[in-house]
Each structure stands twice: as structure tokens, then as C-alpha cells.
């Protein structure tokens, strides 16, 4: 992120203020939005380093949408020009033929001057962004794209649990998902300590919540678990040190550590994690926090495959469904 953009998202108190999502059009089953859910029409663009994008990678895989919605992966190192397709031949996304995600943003709005964020769903024919509304995007994959789900796909956003899922998601976003960023990007001691206290108070609350239940809501994985997991899986690798979230490591919080390992070992979760992309992105992109761009060798990742014992709490990850192939 460029220095000017970093300052633009910091309040006068030194608090991190996240940029609002600019493109919030929805892709709908009936096409009433003007963007009907159709196979091969759209392309999901993600960074494997980004927790917000990682949500969409997990949900797409759990629901079996790979054949309906193609996916492009950007370089984990974002320079001042934004996200780049340098992992692809000739540095171009093979489907949309663009070199920078910013090209798709500008095709949607020539006046756009904010950060070009992931995840983003692009219209392939027009090469423009349809949505970068990451909270709604994954919910729509569960609901509006249901026609294209695989047989045995889990119900990640079941109607009878939506109110509870929404309530959990709201506090987890405010204090944990975005809370780690509010710690890491704070530019005043006061703002940092306030975010730090809220983060660990919420993690303590989540530990109590998960002490006698396997999943956040109900007895199967839901959207709520996906959203918490993408922050927890990055906690020790980047947030603990790089973002100064250092009261404890995740591995020192027994309940959350076991919960995270349980999800990591569930098909669709751990097999979508790329620790190399995660570490290189955070440590080599945030110049204002880590000007040397040295990427740590640790932590030891072998613990993610150790037994977690959470099966004893009951529940089945996919309910009556099946894991992704």
C-alpha cells in the first residue's frame, strides 16, 4: 500500500479506518440486479495472502463452484501500482488479459482513485469489476449461486441460523478481522492500545463461546467459521509480530488453537492456505511497518496437523453433506 493511501485511511486520532467497498452490485440467481449468476461469465480475482479474499476461496471450494466461477490469483507482493498478475505467463491474467487489477477497476469507473482490493469478481466480457463487496460476495455464493453448487455442498448460510451468524460476524469483524489491522496500522499509542484491548477481549470471549461447542453457530461449519478462520490462520505467522498483536500467540490460546486446527484439517480450509504468500505479502508490502522487507523464517507450521480433540464436542463439519473432492 502506498504511503499516501496509508495516511488517507488513518483518522486524526491515529486509528485505522478501512476504505469502504466501492463496487457493491450483486450477482443474483434471477438476474434482477442486471448481473445473473451464470457459469463462465465471471472471474473471481484473489490474493492467497489476503484474509478477505481467502474467505471467497474457501467458500468457492466448499460449495464446489470451481467449474462455474473461474479464479485468478495475483502476486502476493503488491507494489505502488496495486495487485499484479505476474504469476501468469507474460504477466497477464489468461482470462481477462489484464496485467493489473486496477485496469478492471478503471473500466468500471474511470474516476476511481482508491485502493483496488481483493476479492473482486470481474465480468469477463467487459473486463470490469462487478463487485468488491467481500462481506456480501461470499453470502451470495451460498445463496444466489445455489443452482451451481456441487452435490453434497454444505449449507454455510442456512436461513434458520442467519440472524445468529450475522450477529457473530458483526462482532468478529469489528474486533478481530478488522481489529488486527487496527492494531497494525495505528499511528498513535492510544489507538493501538484501544484496538489491542478490544481484540484480545473478543478472543477471550470466543474462547469461552467455543469451550463446549465445536463451531461458532449450530453444529456444522458456517460462514461464521470461515470468517474467523482466515484471521486465526494468519495470527502467529503475521499478526502476532508484524501487527503487534502480541499478548499471546494463537498457539498459546488452547481453545482457539484447537478450533483453528480442527478447521485447518477440514477439507476446503487448510488446503487453501498458502503461508508463503501470506508472509511475503505482509512483510514485504507494508513498508511503513517493516522497511527492511525481511520475511521471518518461522513460525514452525507442523503444529497445524497435530490432533485437536474437538470431535468430542459433537457436530459434523458438513452436516448431512460431504467434503469437497
Automatic annotation (TrEMBL):
Pfam families: GST_C_2 (PF13410). Residues 158-285 form the GST C-terminal domain. Coiled coil: none annotated. The keyword Transferase applies. GO terms for cellular component: cytoplasm. The record marks 239, 282 as: Lowers pKa of active site Cys. GO terms for molecular function: glutathione transferase activity. This is Putative glutathione S-transferase. It comes from Saccharopolyspora phatthalungensis. The lineage of its organism: Bacteria, Bacillati, Actinomycetota, Actinomycetes, Pseudonocardiales.
Amino acid at each position: 500500500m502506498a504511503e499516501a493511501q496509508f495516511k488517507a485511511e488513518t483518522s486524526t486520532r491515529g486509528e485505522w479506518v478501512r476504505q469502504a467497498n466501492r463496487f457493491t452490485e450483486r450477482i443474483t440467481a434471477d438476474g434482477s440486479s442486471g448481473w445473473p449468476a451464470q457459469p463462465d461469465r465471471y472471474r473471481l480475482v484473489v490474493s492467497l495472502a489476503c484474509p478477505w479474499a481467502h474467505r471467497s476461496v474457501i467458500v468457492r471450494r466448499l460449495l464446489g463452484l470451481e467449474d462455474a466461477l473461474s479464479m485468478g490469483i495475483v502476486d502476493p507482493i503488491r507494489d505502488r501500482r496495486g495487485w499484479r498478475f505476474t504469476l501468469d505467463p507474460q504477466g497477464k491474467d489468461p482470462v481477462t488479459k489484464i496485467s493489473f487489477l486496477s485496469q478492471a477497476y478503471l473500466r468500471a469507473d474511470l474516476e476511481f482513485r482508491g485502493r483496488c482490493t481483493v476479492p473482486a469478481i470481474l465480468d469477463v466480457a467487459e473486463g470490469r469489476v462487478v463487485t468488491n463487496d467481500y462481506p456480501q460476495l461470499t453470502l451470495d455464493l451460498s445463496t444466489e449461486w445455489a443452482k451451481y453448487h456441487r452435490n453434497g455442498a454444505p449449507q454455510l448460510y442456512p436461513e434458520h441460523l442467519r440472524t445468529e451468524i450475522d450477529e457473530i460476524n458483526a462482532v468478529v469483524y469489528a474486533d478481530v478481522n478488522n481489529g488486527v489491522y487496527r492494531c497494525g496500522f495505528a499511528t498513535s499509542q492510544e489507538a493501538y492500545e484501544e484496538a489491542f484491548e478490544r481484540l484480545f477481549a473478543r478472543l477471550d470471549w470466543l474462547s469461552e463461546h467455543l469451550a463446549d461447542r465445536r463451531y461458532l453457530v449450530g453444529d456444522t461449519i458456517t460462514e461464521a467459521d470461515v470468517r474467523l478462520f482466515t484471521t486465526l490462520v494468519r495470527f502467529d505467522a503475521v499478526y502476532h509480530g508484524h501487527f503487534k498483536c502480541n499478548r499471546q500467540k494463537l498457539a498459546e490460546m488452547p481453545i482457539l488453537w484447537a478450533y483453528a486446527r480442527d478447521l485447518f484439517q477440514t477439507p476446503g480450509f487448510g488446503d487453501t492456505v498458502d503461508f508463503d504468500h501470506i508472509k511475503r505479502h505482509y512483510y514485504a508490502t507494508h513498508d511503513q511497518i517493516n522497511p527492511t522487507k525481511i520475511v521471518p523464517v518461522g513460525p514452525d507450521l507442523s503444529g497445524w496437523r497435530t490432533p485437536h480433540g474437538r470431535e468430542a464436542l459433537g457436530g459434523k463439519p458438513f452436516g448431512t453433506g460431504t467434503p469437497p473432492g
